[in-house]
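I am still getting used to backbone structure tokens and would like to learn alongside you. Would you supply a protein for us yourself, any chain you care to pick? Start from the sequence, derive the backbone structure tokens from it, and show both lines together. Go ahead whenever you are ready, and we will take it from there.
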Amino acid sequence: MENLNALLAGLAISQLLFLGCYIVFNVPGHRMARILVLFSLCLSGFLAGGIPVLSSHPAVDLVLDSLAILTPAMLWLFAMSFFKDERHIPPYGAFLIGVYFLLRTGDSLLELQGYTTGAWGYYLGYLLPTVIMFGLSLHVVYMGIEGRRADLLEQRRRLRLPFVISMGVVVIFTLSFGVLSPLIQRMLSPQGSQLFVAGVTLVIYSAVFLWTLGLNLATFQILPVTERLLQNPQRISPARPEKTNGARTVLPDSRLMEKINGAMNEQKLYKERGFTIAQLGNKLSTSEQRLRTTINQTMEFRNFNQFLNHYRIREAAQLLKDSDESIANIAMDVGYNSLSAFNKAFKETYGRTPRDYRAGD
């Protein structure tokens, strides 16, 4: 079974390296593409760590272990960029990733030097980093499900569940196996313990191989739109023009656009907190898919929240100039549930905070 595991690990690594090379040569320069390449390398390091001939050398094993440690972080960063359209790493995310990587790597270095860290070493060097990685992986699964209906990119909507959720589940399963394995092995005989470890490893390697193979096949199926899916999201302009493609203008559904403009500019439906694309579809008596296509092709928004922010921030900016209403009241009036969400969306649009904008800085 050890030879079969090594074979599956090699096959999965070949698929990951193929994916990385494809992204490098066909989608160069995009931030999400770089993160996906790093994720492929980190996951390859995790798989290679299970091949005895590679992991037998302490220095090589340390490098492979460091790459494996970063796998949940790279998956989380990719999910944040791909689904949340974040242009920057959230500070809390960078902090958590830095903490767990330093703790886990530091513990590995101490073990390599022959130091015994005891119970505190186990809690700080292994258990705490594992909990953080587990939390990031769960968040990946959550992001894959949450906001799917608000996604305006149809190809991305199709990839949400099979891509990130499947990989998130694999990572969660792998982390759980690492935590529970010592307990389970104590309950088994030495031979049973070896069979258990080899069997679970076989399942993990098989899942990663099938996942990467499916991802590569899906990438080729959506080849014409791969670059568009991985492109860096642009800052939302308060006055967003209709999309043009060279000399050719993408003609929207004009009647539906009139209804959308009326709902947003005249009825100001965006002021309803928690307003969804399903509710807009009901108001306009049209399907969600038709709305997604029209809004995305006409105004280039990647998700429905960006679309709502376009109208909310535009009105908020006007209120900041023309009224003495508090910033918090303005945020609630234009449809935001919290002041922090409003401040973030406003700064992403205008490059400064609402307070600075009102002061004219």
User: Anything to note?
Assistant: The longest strand covers residues 244-245.
